């Protein structure tokens, strides 16, 4: 029957001083995140202190190395899971944002249509010829047998009324 060695504070301090740097160096092969490395090594020593009377450890260096490696692998797995969740969340947030923008565009499009329908007939016709048919002011003037100045004036009125209507009725989310 083996007798468990007594680990007091002085003995523990010696173990800590001897193996802390060694464990940190070993874990640096897995990640360059110094904070994570130090946290993991700290957790190992806390566990060793808390369970000092429970186990009989034949080879302390091997025990600490295996504990450190296992904790690091768990950390890396959890970190990858966290990154995957963040990526999924970001993707979903982006899709929701696109959907909201799509709804906003549809709402804005409907308001624009209402605003155009509320224009006086001559103003509406000139606006649609310009924006929908892509005719120049000169072409519109020739087609409707009006002056270019009339087309310019009617377009100014149309744009002003449409902006006013949309500003009064549109609520962005």
From TrEMBL:
Pfam family, one: Sigma70_r2
Domain RNA polymerase sigma factor 70 region 4 type, residue spans: 112-155
Keyword Calcium: no
UniProt cross-references to InterPro entries, sorted A to Z: RNA_pol_sigma-70-like, RNA_pol_sigma-70_dom, RNA_pol_sigma70_bacteroid, RNA_pol_sigma70_r2, RNA_pol_sigma70_r4_t2, RNA_pol_sigma_r2, RNA_pol_sigma_r3/r4-like, WH-like_DNA-bd_sf
Segments passing through the bilayer: none
Keywords, in A-Z order: Sigma factor, Transcription, Transcription regulation
Ranges of residues in domain RNA polymerase sigma-70 region: 15-80
MF (Gene Ontology): DNA binding; sigma factor activity
UniProt keyword Transcription regulation, yes or no: yes
SUPFAM superfamilies with a match to the protein in the record: Sigma2 domain of RNA polymerase sigma factors, Sigma3 and sigma4 domains of RNA polymerase sigma factors
PANTHER family documented for this protein: RNA POLYMERASE ECF-TYPE SIGMA FACTO, RNA POLYMERASE SIGMA-70 FACTOR ECF SUBFAMILY
Family: Belongs to the sigma-70 factor family. ECF subfamily.
Protein name, entry field: RNA polymerase sigma-70 factor, ECF subfamily
Species name: Parabacteroides chinchillae
């Amino acid at each position: 029957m083996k007798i468990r060695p007594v680990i007091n504070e002085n003995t523990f301090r010696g173990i800590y001083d001897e193996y802390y740097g060694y464990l940190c160096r070993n874990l640096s092969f897995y990640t360059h995140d110094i904070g994570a490395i130090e946290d993991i090594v700290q957790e190992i020593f806390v566990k060793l202190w808390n369970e000092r009377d429970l186990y009989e450890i034949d080879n302390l260096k091997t025990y600490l190395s295996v504990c450190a490696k296992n904790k690091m692998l768990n950390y890396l797995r959890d970190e990858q899971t966290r990154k995957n969740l963040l990526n999924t969340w970001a993707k979903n947030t982006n899709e929701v944002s696109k959907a909201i923008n799509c709804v906003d565009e549809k709402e804005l499009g409907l308001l624009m249509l209402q605003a155009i329908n509320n224009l006086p007939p001559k103003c509406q016709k000139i606006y649609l010829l310009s924006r929908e048919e892509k005719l120049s002011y000169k072409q519109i003037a020739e087609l409707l047998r009006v002056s270019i100045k009339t087309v310019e004036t009617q377009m100014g009125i149309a744009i002003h009324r449409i902006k006013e209507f949309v500003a009064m009725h549109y609520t962005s989310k």
